[in-house]
Write a sequence for this structure.
């Protein structure tokens, strides 16, 4: 099925009658950190990517490239990156070999962003019973990223290096579309910038060209609703606190 087959005609007059379901998809989206081994049908993945492709982008550049890993290809990448992560923990001087293509986080943290970051980290580790000095436990939990949190589907997103920073804004909207389309199909996700430092391992593995850079990864599958880690929920600032009304 082509994406044009999915478009309502005309788009401008299409009514969305069930606002509650749209809101539910947004409100129930969270970073799921424990998945069931239940496989995800390829046709289902294809359909949500088709819908997500309607994300806006500057002058319709559509800068996204998606690599879907399942089965042996997924498992092989996990083994490679887990080994590199362990080696890095044993010898921090190896950090120079693993550089992100772009700065995801600021070089210097300031309030309120550092406060929210700490709240998130302390809250997650608190749910898991990991104390501040438990380096081994924190390493193991962080490494769960590189195991796709046991999700059967891993996605890697790249874009051409020639594109500007505005394409990262476009990419964010595309990623959100994917996550909301996944929720509509009973799936959960976890977007992951944690993979970015291991791009030199990931890009050759997925067959990305030299002109591509890694934007992020994502875990996708069916949530393990009984997992303790999935009871963790982050807070959000109230809309009135970040909105200015000008009349």
């Amino acid at each position: 099925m082509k994406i044009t087959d999915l478009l309502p005609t005309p788009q401008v007059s299409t009514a969305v009658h069930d606002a509650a379901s749209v809101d539910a998809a947004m409100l129930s989206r969270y970073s799921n950190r424990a998945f069931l081994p239940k496989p995800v049908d390829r046709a289902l993945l294809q359909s949500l990517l088709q819908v997500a492709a309607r994300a806006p982008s500057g002058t319709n550049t559509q800068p996204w490239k998606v690599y879907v890993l399942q089965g042996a290809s997924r498992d092989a990448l996990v083994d490679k990156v887990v080994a590199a992560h362990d080696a890095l923990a044993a010898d921090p001087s190896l950090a120079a070999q693993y550089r992100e293509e772009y700065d995801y986080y600021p070089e210097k943290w300031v309030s309120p962003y550092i406060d929210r970051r700490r709240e998130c980290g302390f809250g997650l580790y608190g749910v898991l019973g990991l104390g501040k000095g438990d380096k081994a436990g924190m390493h193991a939990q962080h490494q769960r990223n590189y195991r796709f949190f046991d999700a059967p589907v891993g996605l890697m997103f790249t874009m051409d290096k020639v594109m500007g920073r505005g394409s990262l804004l476009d990419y964010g909207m595309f990623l959100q579309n994917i996550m909301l389309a996944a929720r509509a199909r009973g799936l959960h996700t976890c977007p992951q910038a944690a993979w970015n430092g291991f791009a030199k391992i990931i890009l050759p593995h997925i067959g990305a060209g030299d002109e591509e850079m890694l934007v992020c990864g994502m875990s996708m599958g069916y949530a393990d609703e009984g997992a303790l880690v999935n009871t963790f929920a982050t807070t959000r600032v109230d809309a009135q606190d970040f909105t200015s009304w000008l009349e």
Remarks:
- The CA atoms of residues 122 and 132 lie 8 Å apart.
- The chain has one domain: 20-103+145-233.
